[in-house]
Design brief:
The chain is mainly β and 236 residues long. Helix content is 0%, strand content 56%. The chain starts with a strand and ends with a strand. GO terms for molecular function: metal ion binding.
């Protein structure tokens, strides 16, 4: 078993006034050669955007981009003609493939928006760009792990061009569960959205990140009411 711990207060901190972003891995002006990625997981940004502000139209290619809103409403537009709003309970995915341009704005003029921006390196390059979003039932993650992403379009959740599985859990204090690795050679990066948990013997708190690999399964124990995001990705 191998592990890596990223405490919440060790993340990169970028405050642009209208945007406050915490970077778990090197991104933009934050560079740490020891924190470039976790396997195929390249970016995990914890973003807060002021009322009425956002990211203007900009391009991406050959990246799987996942957005998970935590508070507020985020308005999306892209070069494929999509115009929609994502909010807490939704999952958004873009396979940038051969190239896509998009913008993301806080739809509301009176309150902020918070969301996770996640980039995963694809296992296929130059695919046809694709956009999708779904609305999840939060009850399906109460004291269980709700699958929100996989490599299979037939599975629950969204799908991406990578051998990856994401799960969300909303756990009551004292709840315990096991997570079994789905893909050979994969590892899991756990991000604690709120509360206190143990993964095996590692104590974790709100906004901590913890990577674990070279293991078949591990145990999650909630030391308080907690919310957790698990991101299983190839390590090679």
């Amino acid at each position: 078993m191998k592990t890596v711990l990223h405490k919440a207060d060790t993340r990169g901190d970028a405050n642009h006034g209208w945007l406050h972003s915490k970077h778990s891995f090197s991104f933009a002006g934050y560079y740490n050669p020891e924190r470039m990625n976790f396997g195929a997981l390249r970016v995990l940004n914890d973003d807060s955007v002021d009322a009425g502000m956002g990211f203007g139209a900009h391009p991406h290619d050959n990246m799987e981009i996942i957005s998970i809103p935590l508070e507020g409403d985020l308005e999306h537009k892209d070069s494929m003609g999509n115009k929609t709003v994502i909010k807490k309970g939704d999952i958004q995915v873009m396979s940038a493939g051969t190239g896509i341009t998009h913008s993301e704005y806080n739809k509301n003029a009176d309150k902020g928006v918070k969301f996770l921006q996640i980039w995963v390196l694809p296992n296929k390059r130059n695919v046809q760009p694709r956009y999708d979003q779904i609305t999840l039932n939060p009850e399906d993650r109460h004291n269980k792990l709700q699958q929100i992403l996989s490599p299979d379009p037939k599975d629950p959740g969204v799908w991406i061009q990578q051998n990856a599985w994401f799960h969300l859990g909303k756990l009551d204090k004292g709840f315990n569960t096991d997570y079994a690795i789905n893909g050979t050679g994969n590892g899991v990066y756990a991000f604690i959205l709120s509360g206190d948990v143990n993964i095996n013997d590692q104590k974790l708190n709100t906004r901590d990140g913890f990577g674990i690999w070279d293991i078949d399964k591990f145990t999650i124990s909630a030391n308080s009411d907690a919310e957790i995001l698990l991101m299983e990705v190839p390590m090679a």
